[in-house]
Design a protein that fits this description.
Elements (H helix, E strand, L loop, with lengths): L1 H15 L2 H32 L1 E5 L2 H11 L11 H9 L5 E6 L5 E6 L5 H23 L3 H7 L13 H35 L5 H9 L2 H36 L4 H18 L2 H23 L11 H13 L10 H6 L6 H10 L5 H30 L7 H10 L2
Parallel strand pairs: 1-2
Antiparallel strand pairs: 2-3
Helix pairs in contact: 1-9, 7-10, 7-11, 7-12, 7-14, 9-11, 9-15, 11-12, 11-14, 11-15, 15-16
Length: 406
């Protein structure tokens, strides 16, 4: 048992210390940081050139509009039209507004391009409010007449169900989950198959098997890879949680979360539950299959081809889920949710759509776990016969010899 854990830790440390693992784990977060960084820099650089100046004969009118527009959008240092013209010519501002007050309020915008729709709506709304107040004062209306003029229409929404939001959350969750499963499965299947295939028929393996059993060596290899996968998932969970909290605190992301915050929460809930367990177990069973495939290649030079069976099977399972993303109650989905190698894709689909009971989830998990245990035990018992074959015989001959090994 001690030697098995030595193999496990050796495999784990070798994988974790490799640059490929670091790039694989950190790449989503690097892309996220780059996206936020570009957005932040773009927003800040655009702010400097998109400022406007406000010029008015009445300082109170100017200050009132600056308060409405916000000091972050107005260059408050420019107070005269001459200074505003010079700044516009130098491209220091995107334009300037001249305000005048009288019986009728007036605003003139000067710029090289048309005023943005949001700024225009804000300006006209500001002037309309002032003009209404001025009209009321000039008309000298009674209190009752003022109350009558202040009446506004009302509008409310009565939402019976949130089917649209729930459906969108389910669709987004489905795509995120199946892509996560597929990418992690494919990556680690290839890594495991190539690592084992590279040892094929070497003298080193004969020396290793002289000091420990092939079963312990195989189990140690698998456990080491699984620890690497667990580390990656843990990094994703912690990093994703921190990223989500940080994003919610950013001013540039607040409009998005104000509108779609409940959608994001539902998607996170659909992902961070028992679906993660199906993802992890799915990676385990495909990793074991990849290890078996790696041991079956004819020589170490064929290591690049070793992952093909596991990769192709995962591709079949991956694409098989597409037609059923909105039909989780289909008979095919129900059957496949209990079939090892496919249940990691199909059962989460049923869980996301809330079309499965806890007992059915437990049965599917039980079948998957028992299959993993049985597959590990069987392959470890014939592993020595598989890995020590150095001949270039046909695939089925090598498989028959390996299976017949005792």
């Amino acid at each position: 048992m001690k030697k098995m854990w030595i193999v496990t830790l050796t495999t784990y440390l070798r994988q974790v210390k490799s640059w490929s693992f670091v790039i694989l784990v950190l790449s989503p977060f690097i892309m996220l940081l780059v996206s936020f960084g570009v957005g932040f820099i773009s927003a800040n650089s655009a702010t400097d050139g998109n400022d406007i100046a406000v010029v008015a004969d009445q300082p109170a009118l100017r200050q009132a509009y600056i308060k409405v527009a916000g000091k972050d959008k107005v260059d408050t240092k420019l107070t005269t039209e001459a200074a505003a013209k010079h700044a516009l010519k130098a491209n220091d501002i995107s334009g300037y507004v001249t305000l005048s007050q009288g019986i009728q309020y007036r605003a003139v915008y000067h710029g090289k391009e048309a005023m943005s729709a949001s700024d225009k709506t804000q300006l006209t709304g500001f002037l309309s409010k002032l003009q209404t107040q001025n009209n009321v004062a000039q008309a000298k209306l009674t209190h009752r007449q003022l109350q009558q003029l202040s009446l506004q229409p009302t509008f409310k929404q009565v939402i019976q169900k949130r089917d649209g939001l729930v459906k969108t959350a389910r669709t987004v969750s489905f795509w995120i989950l199946v892509f996560m499963v597929y990418m992690i499965l494919t990556t680690y299947s290839s890594i495991t198959a190539q690592e084992i295939a590279s040892e094929k028929g070497t003298k080193v393996m004969e020396m290793v098997f002289s000091s420990t059993t092939a079963a312990k060596y195989f189990c140690g290899k698998i456990l080491g890879v699984l620890m690497v996968i667990g580390t990656q998932l843990l990094v994703y969970l912690i990093g994703g949680w921190i990223s989500l909290i940080a994003a919610k605190q950013m001013n540039m992301a607040k409009p998005f979360f104000d509108q779609y915050g409940s959608l994001v929460d539902q998607v996170v809930h659909n992902l961070v539950n028992v679906n993660l367990l199906f993802l992890f177990l799915g990676v385990i069973i495909y990793t074991i299959l990849a290890a078996f495939s790696g041991a079956l290649v004819s020589k170490a030079e064929d290591a690049s081809k070793a992952a093909y069976p596991a990769v192709y099977l995962s591709m079949i399972a991956f694409f098989a889920t597409f037609p059923f993303q909105n039909n989780a109650d289909a008979l095919v989905v129900k059957i496949m949710s209990y079939v090892p190698f496919f249940s990691s894709y199909f059962m989460p689909l049923r869980i996301i759509n809330q079309s499965v009971s806890p007992m059915e989830i437990g049965i599917s998990l039980g079948i998957l776990i028992l299959t993993i245990i049985g597959l590990t035990w069987y392959i470890s018992s014939i592993y020595k016969g598989l890995i020590l074959q150095a001949d270039e015989s046909h695939f089925w001959q090598r498989l028959r010899k390996g299976v017949a090994y005792k």
